[in-house]
Design brief:
Helices cover 30% and strands 20% of the residues. By secondary structure, the chain is α/β, with parallel strands linked by helices. It folds into 2 domains: 203 residues, DHBP synthase (Alpha-Beta Complex), CATH 3.90.870; 89 residues, 3-Layer(aba) Sandwich (Rossmann fold).
Length: 319
């Protein structure tokens, strides 16, 4: 199969109506999209990604009004979050209606809904009569793609079309939340910070997954893996520990290239800006993977704002 890269919305729409897969841009990462109401099309997502069937998918919708089409018993707090954040990097896990195939939710009674903020994909969603199931457009467990080229490098020849919307603005997947009474449960840290959620709803707590039995999309403990083993800690000490190895470095703002063992380094933000670091994280991991290294070392990022989500992704990659 030849994979085409372009910005033809009509072609993307035609392929999706035919039950085919299309990679789509969002503000977070590129997604591998199919008609979320077509179980056969959704099955192709799992097949192409080699994704376990017990890992549920996020469903992308064009408007807040679509929540009631696909979810029921929606808490008022969910509407409040959606009205404030959407379109944006927030996924709401809600009790699903039967119109959503069980394959999408991996048999769970809930579904993750999100309204992305990328204008090209919003235009596409508004032109369709169905929502799009769309996990990240990469082989399961590997680094998420933030450009059309990243998608093509990994899935080229396996899907017919990549809708090119340029580099992703956020660069980390969406934050995923669920609801328990009047409390928000944060299942996955992502492009929306904990601080931003607490401004709207102070009563929230972390409920991150620590097993291989996810209750929401993106919760598997081991994920986002690089080709080279990844170690996290204090960089100078790690360089000494792995002396003689061919080392790649992911750092926030400091330069460690003076060490003879450091063959390649990716500084995510020379100015110490966590938003910039988040945008560059997956590209940096992908860049280091292209070099002949023995290991990749990363420091722990400040545990605030998007730093929490960066640390989450690094921890899962190191697993």
């Amino acid at each position: 199969m030849k994979t085409i890269i372009g910005s033809d919305l009509n072609l993307a729409k035609t392929l999706l109506y035919e039950g085919k897969l299309v990679a789509i841009p969002t503000e977070t990462v590129y997604g591998l999209a199919a008609n979320a109401l077509n179980a056969e099309a959704v099955f192709d997502i799992f097949k192409v990604k080699e994704r376990p069937a017990f890992d549920p998918l996020i469903v992308h919708i064009p408007s807040l009004e679509c929540i009631d089409k696909y979810a029921m018993n929606v808490p008022a707090l969910a509407y409040e979050l959606a009205k404030t954040i959407w379109p944006g990097p927030l996924t709401l896990v809600l009790p699903k209606k039967s119109i959503i195939p069980d394959l999408v939710s991996s048999g769970l009674p809930t579904v993750g809904l999100r309204m992305p903020s990328h204008p090209l994909t919003l235009e596409l969603l508004n032109s369709l009569e169905f929502p799009l199931a769309a996990p990240s457009a990469n082989p399961f467990g590997y680094i998420s793609p933030t450009t059309a080229k990243h998608v093509n490098d990994q899935l080229g020849g396996k899907i017919p079309y990549i809708l090119d919307g340029g580099p992703c603005r956020v660069g980390l997947e969406s934050t995923i939340v669920g609801f328990e009474g009047d409390e928000i449960l944060i299942y996955r840290l992502g492009g929306l910070t904990l601080e931003a959620i607490r401004k709207i709803a102070p009563n929230c707590k972390l409920a991150l997954n620590t097993s291989s039995n996810p209750q929401a999309p993106g919760m598997l403990k081991s994920h986002y893996a690089s080709r080279h083993p990844l170690y996290i800690g204090e960089i100078t000490s790690l360089i000494k520990k792995f002396a003689g190895k061919k080392i790649g470095i992911i750092s926030f703002k400091d330069d460690f290239s003076a060490s003879s063992d450091v063959l390649q380094q990716e500084i995510l933000s020379a100015t110490g800006n966590l938003d910039e670091a988040a945008v560059k994280l997956f590209s940096a991991m992908r860049s280091l993977d292209a070099f002949s290294l023995d290991i990749i070392l990363s420091e722990t990022f400040p545990d605030t704002g998007l730093g929490r989500a960066i640390n989450d992704r690094l921890k899962r990659a190191s697993s």
